Amino acid sequence: MFSVTYAQLNGWLTAFLWPFTRILALIAVAPLLGQRVVQTRVKIGLAGFITLIVAPTLGAMPHVTVFSAEGVWIIVNQFLIGIALGFTMQVVFAAVTAAGDIMGLGMGLGFATFFDPQTSANTSALSSLLNMFAMLTFLILDGHLQMLAALVASFESVPISANILGAPGWRILANWGSVVFASGLLLALPVVVALLITNLSLGILNRAAPQIGIFQIGFALTMMTGMLLIVMMVPNMIPFFARLFDSGIDEMGRIAAALRPAG
After folding, report:
1. Would you list the domain boundaries of the chain?
2. How many Å apart are CA 161 and CA 181, to the nearest integer?
3. pLDDT tens track for 119-159
4. Rg of the Cα trace of the chain?
5. Would you place residue 112 in the very low, low, confident or very high pLDDT band (cuts 50, 70, 90)?
6. How many CB atoms lie within 10 A of CB 29?
């Protein structure tokens, strides 16, 4: 007769549940995979499938009962690790969204917003366009596969038994948020500079010939200039996005390494 002891059942459960928690946490907040259009059952199924592949390679788990205080604390740590790694890649797309907002405000399209079910807020149309373009580039460059590979590699950098609350990786993650402003402004810089020159030219023209009616042609001119610059920037956006994605993947590895407590 086939029988299972409590120790065996606990060992099987811990070998699956703890890696599953980290993987599911990343999938829940990661770009593309964590979007609301992806059904919850699909996210859970994908996390379970990846866990079944990864779990046998992780070695022995801590000898802790799953539902004990220490076992629950390990689950909390795995959840925080997955959230931190997923948020690292979300920052990359936040930079693209920030660039779209900066361009839209300069072009006079700040009013062109619509409700985004992903963020449950009004989003600039230009930001959504750039974000969609970045998502397609992310898929073309296999960024989702690289992100999952970095997640699997994190099990070597941060073992299951690690206590991450006092680790310096959280400071690195906070500093990584500065890429939203730096990369977003860098992406929007050509449009910002061109619109600045356009507005200065319109101001000089208004002083020289007030009868032209700058307010009537200014909006159309700035919008047309911005659109023209965006079209010209498209061939150079893919290499820019590729470097941004590579930086995000590398940052995932650095944050995972820093989340491991010393000693």
Report:
1. 6-259
2. 35
3. 666 777 788 888 888 999 999 998 889 998 999 888 888 88
4. 24
5. low
6. 17
Secondary structure of the chain in HEC code, one letter for each residue? CCCCCHHHHHHHHHHHHHHHHHHHHHHHHCCCCCCCCCCHHHHHHHHHHHHHHHHHHCCCCCCCCCCCHHHHHHHHHHHHHHHHHHHHHHHHHHHHHHHHHHHHHHHCCCCCEEEECCCCEEEEHHHHHHHHHHHHHHHHCCHHHHHHHHHHHHHHHCCCCCCCCCCCHHHHHHHHCCHHHHHHHHHHHHHHHHHHHHHHHHHHHHHHCHHHCHHHHHHHHHHHHHHHHHHHHHHHHHHHHHHHHHHHHHHHHHHHHHHCCCC
Q: Which residues on neighbouring strands pair with residue 124, listed in sequence order?
A: 113
